[in-house]
Write a structure and sequence with these properties.
220 residues, 8 helices, globular, lyase activity, Glyoxalase, Class_I_gatase-like, ElbB
């Protein structure tokens, strides 16, 4: 049986959900490597809805994170509270503002952020079992709250987000768009993706490296 990877989504669209290119590149690389995957998302209401054409909130409209994530997964999506770490070999979290608005409240609380319970419970099993955990773009900001202090991660070079990671007890490492940061002891792999990328090809380089390293770690 092929190795299985859980992919956790936070909606659909960079401004209020999962970053679409980051998600697609992650799924593409998993498939290229012959790795199985299943997508999960919380069955909760989005923080708000953004008109991606104009970049402004849409007044009076609500959307469900699980339903929106299904767009990215072509309908093959499962509620996050059904994710069992013992059924998978690794887990990956693409970025997008849904991480900071739906999976947590980082967008409004900064370094006082809280992570939704379903995500905390899902990631605990992977961390305790020393199964690889990949995070990209803004999602590494969750690591100190999700997994504990002292874990090295990167969001690239953004001083505000790096400062928040440090304030929560995390270790931020500066990193180029096409590279990754590995905390081998904790089996955590991170890459800046669209925290730095200006083109999809730039994002792809780091994301592919992240997925490749996750694949290698599953054998260790």
């Amino acid at each position: 049986m092929s190795k299985q990877v859980a992919v956790i989504l936070s909606g659909c669209g960079v401004q209020d959900g999962s970053e679409i290119y980051e998600t697609t590149l992650t799924l593409l690389r998993l498939d290229q490597l012959g790795l199985g995957y299943r997508c999960f998302a919380p069955d909760i209401e989005q923080h708000h809805v953004i008109d991606h054409r104009h970049g402004a909130p849409v007044e009076g409209e609500t959307r469900n994170v699980l339903t929106e994530s299904a767009r990215l997964a072509r309908g093959e999506i499962f509620p996050l509270d059904e994710l069992e770490a013992d059924e998978f070999d690794a887990v990956i979290l693409p970025g997008g503002f849904g991480v900071a608005k739906n999976l947590s409240d980082f967008a409004v609380a900064g370094d006082g952020l809280q992570v939704i319970e379903a995500l905390t419970e899902a990631l605990a099993g992977f961390h305790q079992s020393r199964k690889p955990i990949g995070l990209m773009c803004i999602s590494p900001v969750l690591v100190p709250r999700l997994l504990g202090p002292g874990i090295a991660v990167t969001v690239g070079s953004d001083p505000g987000v790096a400062g928040a990671i440090s304030a929560m007890g995390g270790l931020h490492r500066s990193c180029g768009v096409g590279d990754i940061v590995l905390d081998f002891e904790n089996r955590v792999v991170t890459t800046p993706a669209y925290m730095l990328a200006t083109r999809i090809s730039e994002a792809a380089t780091g994301i592919f490296k992240l997925v490749d390293r996750i694949d290698e770690l599953m054998d260790l």
